[in-house]
Design goal:
heterodimer; A: 375 residues; four-stranded antiparallel beta sheet; B: alpha+beta; Rossmann fold; 3 domains; eleven-stranded mixed beta sheet; 23% strand; IMP4/RPF1 (chain B)
Chain lengths: 375, 354
């Protein structure tokens, strides 16, 4: 049992309040909840890692509690109350150093909770109808919020009085009509200060807090349905967006052009995350499937049916599937693995070796490897 | 090759055959060519052409169209004859064996060759049971609400659509038909909720033919969009019974096996009151086959202990699911649970969604 738990690599939160762990290489799903206490009020709205070592999960449920789930023990170890359900569900959850916690609700109350205190240490109002709150991966104290009729705001939690950056509304359109804000999701672009958002009006915007321009410095459009989530792959210069009709597309950030769509989805996308080192993207949504696509050839690598509508998804920073086969039960895993997976495994090992700046050198390495395979 | 020397044969095939034979001969000897021609011409005249073809010959090689057609018809007839003979033979064998005859083979259909769908609902599954037990229809299935249906159409309905609405209203108990009056659906929905309607049904028409159905469960959704086809009104039916009575009918739902099928089945079941009046002896059937949902409305009678008679009351129509949306009708900003993606999904004919 313990081994199986450790093998779970993808974590998903469902609408029925069940936390699901999926072992990708074996296509096995495990439910973590006590089945006697199932209720829709515990619907998982957001997930994040509790510590940098990724041994603890923070699960934000719709009734306003944040539960701590220990991956090693496979059980919920702690639960604390962060805000009341009347203020709306969680739209974002993020850990801070020293086991503090940032939460944000739909009502726009952004709160920082220190350990062992029922009162929030910092409380600020980010405006109504917040759709998403995200933390910067580099600077833990920098968070972004945005929602319906509530433009992008970037906050510094050390100086919570005023937002560091507030987006300005778009220019009026050619009929002189006001354009609405509807930020559905955002992400901090690594190595820059820029923030990318996607909107309910199928736009993708990039904001640059350093420039004097408070309007987006780039706008791209995809499809004709509201975009729900976005995620930035490790390779850079790209963004993956998903919409309510189950369409996922990769867009180039330099020109804002679509450079590929991912197929196979049937229902709206709710959660989307790219792996931090591998070129894969995992998506989940109302169609109750977890799908993992490769970003290189845009093929569907894995598809797991999980029985409930899924709200959010969390990938680890380690590799998704090689550990499973190595540690135990090699025979079993090999049976389950499709040939494609094996091809994938070999590809990974190449990917591990290379670092981004040393591109040329790694390419040089790759070529002889390929040749050797052919022989 | 000089064809002018050869006496013109009645059919073009002679040439063809010669060519083929010649090709064969080329490999052997070229000297015998003249003699070979003579020998060839004999079988042409004496035998019917079809019999002397080499096995690799295909009818499409014939260049004369009339001739080709004739040959093709002959070929077909022959094949058919053979088939019938085989059948007769088999039948005789079966009769000879009597009871010991092997059981008849089940014909292959795309339904029984269906690709396994991993979302097929297992009745013992706790999680799915919980999911279904707490969904938007749970109030109806727990007997807390009674269905009340509003039927309306797209703007300015014409002949058949109006009649179709009226007839639907006689099938579904507690249904109210309203004229659309150019109102927006998103504005109608809050008013319906205030008046305790549990369903909003909108029939779309195109060139006087009903072709779409939006079925919106109130107050929380979901909303399904169906394509409607082959509508047959009561008047157009043969051997139909008298008009249906006010009794609430029994409902039969067939073949809704996947998770999506279950939600659609629940959506359709919740249209009718939960306790049917058995006195009325009326049945509404939603039969799903190859993702098409066939609706029929019957009256039955138990003639004696073994025999049952049924009588169709109409109307009949066929539905095909286009999309299932979470929440009440909002085609622009709503989140879709399932969308039909035509060229992506129907690449395999043996894969079904419902």
């Amino acid at each position: 049992m313990g081994d199986r738990r450790r093998l779970c690599t993808v974590w998903l939160g469902s609408e029925t309040g069940i936390l699901k762990g999926v072992d990708v290489s074996r296509k096995q799903a495990l439910n973590f909840c006590n089945s006697s206490h199932l209720s829709r009020e515990q619907e998982v709205r957001s997930l994040c890692w509790g510590d940098p070592a990724e041994s603890e999960l923070l699960v934000g449920s719709a009734d306003g509690t944040v539960k701590t789930f220990s991956v090693e023990k496979g059980d919920f170890t702690d639960s604390r109350r962060c805000g009341n359900p009347a203020e709306g569900c969680f739209t974002g959850l993020a850990p801070l150093s020293g086991s503090a916690l940032v939460t944000c609700g739909e009502s726009g109350m952004l709160r920082v909770w220190r350990e062992d205190s029922s009162q929030p240490a910092i409380e600020l109002n980010a405006g109504k109808n917040v759709c998403r709150m995200r933390q910067s991966p580099v600077n833990q104290h920098s968070v972004a919020t945005g929602g319906k009729e509530n433009g992008l705001k970037i906050w510094d939690l050390e100086r919570p009085e005023k937002p560091v950056f507030t987006a300005k509304n778009l220019r009026d359109d050619w009929l002189d009509l006001r354009q609405q804000h509807w930020v559905r999701d955002m992400a901090f672009i690594p190595n820059t200060d820029k923030v990318i958002t996607c909107t309910g009006f199928h736009q993708i915007h990039i904001f640059d807090p350093l420039s004097p321009q408070r309007r987006p410095i780039m706008e791209a459009k995809y499809g004709e349905y509201p975009l729900t989530t976005l995620s930035l792959p490790a390779s850079g210069n790209m963004v993956v967006v998903g919409n309510t009709h189950g369409q996922i597309a990769m867009l180039d950030l330099r020109k804002g052009l679509v450079c590929g769509c991912l197929k196979g989805l049937v229902g709206g996308v709710r959660g989307l995350q790219c792996h931090s080192s591998q070129p894969v993207v995992a998506s989940c949504g109302l169609d109750r499937f977890l799908r993992i696509h490769s970003l290189e050839d845009r093929k569907l690598l894995h598809k797991v049916y999980l029985k409930s509508r899924l709200n959010c998804l969390l990938l680890p920073s380690r590799d998704l599937e090689d550990r499973g086969g190595a540690t135990e039960g090699e025979g079993l895993s090999q049976e389950l693995k499709v040939e494609e997976d094996e091809v994938w495994d070999t590809m990974e090992q190449v990917g591990e070796g290379d670092d981004k700046p040393k591109r040329k050198s790694t390419e040089g390495k790759e070529v002889p490897q390929k040749k050797s395979k052919k022989r | 090759m000089d064809f002018s020397e050869v006496p013109v044969s009645p059919d073009d095939k002679g040439r063809k055959k010669k060519k083929q034979k010649k090709n064969k001969k080329k490999t052997q000897q070229e000297e015998e060519d003249g003699a070979a021609q003579q020998t060839e011409q004999k079988p042409q005249r004496s035998e019917p052409a079809a019999a002397s073809f080499p096995p690799t010959f295909s009818v499409s090689e014939i260049k004369n169209k009339q001739r080709r057609h004739l040959m093709f018809m002959k070929l077909k007839q022959e094949k058919r004859k053979q088939k019938m003979q085989l059948r007769k033979k088999r039948k005789k064998e079966r009769e000879a064996l009597g009871d010991k005859a092997p059981p008849k083979e089940v014909p292959k259909t795309i339904e029984n060759q269906r690709v396994y769908d991993e979302t097929t609902v297992d009745p013992d599954d706790e999680e799915v049971a919980f999911d279904e037990g707490t969904d938007e229809f749970s109030a109806y299935f727990n007997g807390l609400t009674n269905p009340k249906v509003l039927i309306t159409t797209s703007d300015r309905p014409r002949g058949r659509t109006v009649k179709f609405c009226e007839q639907l209203a006689t099938v579904i108990p507690n249904a109210h038909v309203y004229y659309r009056r150019g109102l927006a659906l998103k504005r109608i929905i809050p008013q319906c909720v205030a008046r305790d309607f549990t369903y909003l049904m909108v029939i779309n028409e195109d060139r006087k033919v009903p072709n779409g159905l939006v079925l919106c469960h109130l107050p929380e959704g979901p909303t399904a969009h169906f394509k409607v086809s082959s509508v047959r009104l009561r008047k157009e039916m043969k051997r139909r019974g008298k008009d249906p009575t006010e009794h609430s009918p029994e409902v039969i739902l067939n073949n809704f096996s996947t998770r999506l099928g279950h939600s659609i089945g629940r959506l359709l079941a919740a249209l009718f009151p939960q306790n049917p009046h058995f006195v009325g002896r009326q049945v509404a059937t939603f039969h799903n086959q190859r993702d098409f949902i066939f609706f029929r409305f019957h009256r039955y009678i138990f003639k004696n202990e073994k025999k049952v008679g049924i009588q169709e009351l109409g109307p009949r129509f066929t539905l095909k699911l286009r999309s299932l949306q979470k929440g009440t009708f909002d085609s622009k900003f709503g989140e879709y649970e399932w969308v039909l993606k035509r060229h992506e999904m129907d690449s395999c004919r043996r894969k079904f969604q419902l």
